[in-house]
TrEMBL record:
Protein name (Swiss-Prot/TrEMBL): Histidinol-phosphate aminotransferase
Family: Belongs to the class-II pyridoxal-phosphate-dependent aminotransferase family. Histidinol-phosphate aminotransferase subfamily.
Cofactor(s) needed for function: pyridoxal 5'-phosphate
GO molecular function terms attached to this record: histidinol-phosphate transaminase activity; pyridoxal phosphate binding
Gene Ontology biological process terms from the UniProt entry: L-histidine biosynthetic process
Recorded catalytic activity of this chain's protein: L-histidinol phosphate + 2-oxoglutarate = 3-(imidazol-4-yl)-2-oxopropyl phosphate + L-glutamate
Quaternary structure and partners: Homodimer.
Organism: Halalkalibacter nanhaiisediminis
Ranges of residues in domain Aminotransferase class I/classII large: 29-353
Gene: hisC
Length: 367
């Protein structure tokens, strides 16, 4: 057998330890996971009700066109129905884009560090990945532009950026888009857009009128709290959507995902409440960092990247023993940091108390 050479040595995705396993290993009764930027408040009650109503409906294939959800999303964001493509999570749309646009002898440009799935999927397609480091967890858009050539097919803007939480503002994004050559697809990954409070965050939907080479990615996994159901979508001009449609497996979203996402869209109050709690939660972390003179990355998302001046693995291990699962920065390109998802007020208080203990037992080295 001969697999594609680019698959040799490619690591599989390492998910965080399951909660049950951590409980057993450390003899804990309560374990809280603040590692995957999930919504600590779950999802709108309308979601469970919609799934319950569909519970008997298991024998029939889902609607491959996602007509119900398509209409809801189109109305909600003010685009035409033929401007949408749905994925099994926006992860799957990243996969469609790479399958459709990348091959050996092409390249793709990303920020560094950024969301891991762009590089992984591009690598599987045999494309060259040009990772452009930016200052302070930010995108260096000018350097990304300079990395584009005739063979470039996709450039990724993760906004806000995962894992840093930093964002590209309206002026910078629009200036960038105007300079990207028309043969290159620009992907604006807006997985955390609901949480954004910055007033100068780009409004990308209106830009679709002018730019045929723009694709916007959104997801129901984060603020909407539907990570378990896997629903994300892409918005672009209809011609670009038609390119992706044959790449999409015909029944890629379940019926339950369709009805759940449609129900979630009807509860604006739930999202508003979660966003408000998230903003307050971020203040808890920022206050903590300032008190302890820890460097943190200014975030627009539902997570915060904090520099603890020691290996992120050390922070991870310390918290794990006490029943908190977070992400070490070691695997995220910020070795001395930890990325913590904002939890409920009480969860944030608990984890910050433990972090205070950690700092007291071994203070940050003054640099
Ligand atoms: C979480 C995340 C996604 C995708 O999540 P799905 O669950 O696949 O929709 C995409 N991009 C970024 C930057 C993310 O953090």
């Amino acid at each position: 057998m001969q697999a594609k050479p680019q698959l040799h040595g490619l690591p599989s995705y390492k998910p965080g330890k399951p909660i049950e396993e951590v409980k057993k290993e450390f003899g804990l009764t309560k374990v809280i996971k603040l590692a995957s930027n999930e919504n600590p408040f779950g999802s709108s009650p309308k979601v469970a009700e919609a799934i319950r109503q569909m519970a008997e409906n298991t024998a029939v294939y889902p609607d491959g066109y996602a007509a119900l959800l398509r209409e809801k999303v189109a109305n909600k964001i003010g685009v035409n129905e033929n401007q949408l493509v749905f994925g099994n999570g926006s992860d799957e749309i990243i996969q469609f884009l790479c399958r459709a646009f990348l091959s050996p002898n092409t390249n793709t440009v990303t920020a560094h560090p950024t969301f891991s799935q762009y590089k992984l999927n591009a690598t599987i397609e045999g494309a060259e990945v040009r990772e452009i480091s930016g200052p302070d967890g930010m995108h260096d858009l000018d350097a990304m532009l300079a990395a584009i050539d005739e063979q470039t097919r996709i450039v990724w803007v993760c906004n806000p950026n995962n894992p840093s939480g930093t964002y590209v503002n309206k002026e910078a994004f629009e200036r960038f888009l105007a300079q990207v050559p028309s043969h290159v697809l620009v992907v604006s990954d807006e997985a955390y857009i609901e949480y954004v409070t910055a007033e100068d965050y780009p409004e990308t939907l209106p830009l679709l009128e002018k730019y045929n080479n723009l694709m916007i990615l959104r997801t129901f996994s984060k603020a909407y709290g539907l990570a378990a159901l896997r629903v994300g979508y892409g918005v672009a001009n209809p011609a670009l959507i038609s390119i992706l449609d044959p790449v999409r497996p015909p029944f890629n979203n379940t019926t339950f995902a369709h009805v759940a996402a449609a129900a979630a869209l009807e509860d604006d109050a739930f999202i508003a409440e979660c966003v408000e709690k998230n903003t307050a939660g971020l203040t808890q972390y920022v206050t903590f960092c300032e008190k302890h003179q820890l460097r943190y990355y200014p975030t627009q998302a539902n997570f915060i990247l904090i520099d603890f001046g020691r290996s992120g693995d050390e922070v991870f291990d310390f918290l794990l023993k006490k029943g908190f699962i977070i992400r070490s920065g070691e695997a995220l390109g910020f070795p001395t940091c930890a990325r913590i998802t904002v939890g409920s007020k009480e969860q944030n208080e608990e984890i910050l108390t433990i972090l205070e203990e950690m700092l007291a037992s071994k203070p940050v080295e003054q640099r």
